[in-house]
Amino acid sequence: MKTQNSLCAAIFGFSSLTASILDAAAADFEMTLFGRHVTVLGSYPEQRLEIDGRQMLKEAIIDLEDMYLVSGVPALIGTASPGGNACEGAPFIISFPENGNPRLDGPLETCFVVTVDTKPDQLAFSTAALPNHPSERWIWTPGEGLKKVQGQPFTTDPSKGWTELREKTVSHPGDLLKFGEIAEQIDTLLGTDASFFSDIIKGVGSGQFDGDYFVGTACTRHMCLDQEAIVVLSIADRQVFLAWKPSGKKIIVRPIVKEWPEKAKSALRMWAAKWK
């Protein structure tokens, strides 16, 4: 959690902060920034962002996160979230022009993880491209505020495969579709179910490595516990194992369970136990 001292350091140094100013469970936040009284009042499921007593934003969870200097104008980035795990917190920007009232731009209309690229004259926000969804991009400047610009389509890198997976940088099962060699194996296992399966694994999820195995799980947004999928990869054997549960239906497994190694079967059993 960011402390007031760390925020002050960022204000005077205009450096990026890496942790959250405001913990989601905190009751409120209060500080004078550039001569303005900034407060976050209330607690989940309703918090209010006010500046000089004027309500600027209301949401279930409000975080104040990073401070930058853009074209000489201080800009404070925060996120707003309705709570739950369906969507990530959406960024917003509060700017403090020297001869004017503070301005609020956003939150961005997106459900995906947003990264920010800082430049002296602008902030660029973007989401990652997904198999069935191009990336989203926005440019923010102090004068014009937020402007949505064209994103980029999803591309699979044919040069990446099992060798690069050993770098163990993947943390979400949807990221596997960027690895050309692995994506091809997944598509071969799935056949006509490939599009449906990719929709699930690009949803809310996570993954981690356990030795030479990767285990990732995900669920369709707003349908967790109803429509989910698991991906298990054996790096040593260069094999992919998949299972998914369509809404209202039984679990589907590829390849058949008896072809799964014991460690993959164990992960499958633990994942499937919630529906027994």
Record keyword descriptors for this entry.
single chain; 276 residues; alpha+beta; 5-stranded antiparallel β-sheet; 4-stranded antiparallel β-sheet; 5 helices; 16% helix; 38% strand; disordered N terminus
What are the SSEs and their pairings?
Blueprint: H1 4-13, E1 29-33, E2 36-43, E3 46-51, E4 54-59, E5 61-70, E6 73-81, E7 90-95, E8 103-105, E9 115-119, E10 122-126, E11 137-141, E12 145-149, H2 162-165, H3 180-190, H4 194-201, E13 204-210, E14 213-219, E15 228-234, E16 239-245, E17 252-254, H5 262-272
Antiparallel strand pairs: 1-2, 2-3, 3-4, 5-6, 6-7, 7-8, 9-10, 10-11, 11-12, 13-14, 14-15, 15-16, 16-17
In short:
Helix content is 16%, strand content 38%.
Q: Helical segment tally?
A: 5
> Per DSSP, what share of the residues sits in E-state strands of 2 or more residues?
35-45%
Q: Write down the secondary-structure element order.
A: HEEEEEEEEEEEEHHHEEEEEH
What is the averaged pLDDT score?
87
Q: Based on helices, strands and strand pairing, what is the structural class?
A: alpha+beta
Indicate the overall shape.
Answer: elongated
What percent of the residues sit in helical stretches (DSSP H or I)? 10-25%
Task: Determine the N-to-C terminus distance.
Answer: 39 Å
Order of adjacent strands in the largest pleated sheet: 13-14-15-16-17
Low-confidence stretches: 1-27
Task: Kindly describe this structure.
- The protein has 276 residues and is of the alpha+beta class.
- 16% of the residues lie in helices and 38% in strands.
- The strands form 4 sheets. It has a 5-stranded antiparallel sheet, with helices on both faces. A 4-stranded antiparallel sheet has the order 1-2-3-4, with no helix packed on it.
- Strand 9 (115-119) and strand 10 (122-126) form a beta hairpin.
- Residues 1-27 have low confidence and may be disordered.
